[in-house]
Amino acid sequence: MTNSTARRxxxxxxxxxxxxxxxxxxxxxxxxxxxxxICKESGVSRASVxxxxxxxxxxxxxxxxxxxxxxxxxxxLAEIExxxxxxxxxxRSVVSASILLNADEHLAMMLSSEPGEALGQxxxxxxxxxxxxxxxxLSPHLEPLIGHNSAHRLIDLVVRLTVSHFLSPDDSVDLTxxxxxxxxxxxxxxxxxxNEHRFDSVAPHT
Length: 206
Fold this sequence. Notes:
By secondary structure, the protein is mostly helical. Helices cover 75% and strands 0% of the residues.
């Protein structure tokens, strides 16, 4: 077996375990899922699971959260392809993220059945991770337009706003709608980037 074949086999086993963890969370609820449940669902032995995730359950679910975020921001990046202004990049990102959050059945189930865990992953425990991964995804698109500091500041604020609005919606603002989101986000974008000479978006018409 070549090294590349071995690595591919490990990656496939890891994906199978993470897929099983997600399935078990749907079926049993996050807090009730055990390593044995995941082994049974995935067909991967307990010893192999611990080799893949040496810290056990906690490390495994952390890997699952990271994988889900990679997929999430991959979908967001697909929606900003071709965007050339700060306003367009940010608005498309927020609209895409808001649509994905509202369509996430697993997240809705978690918020209903295990709100403590779900809220933790969107706020205190998980928000720094979300901001870090959003920054990794979006900063290459924003930094050339507004510089490193403004890009990172804007991403931080936009992530917090998007999550907050998802958890406590304001009926006067629809962040899944491009026109509504653009109108709402323009003052924030402008305030962060007002000193950047290359920010040339115009305010949306009311």
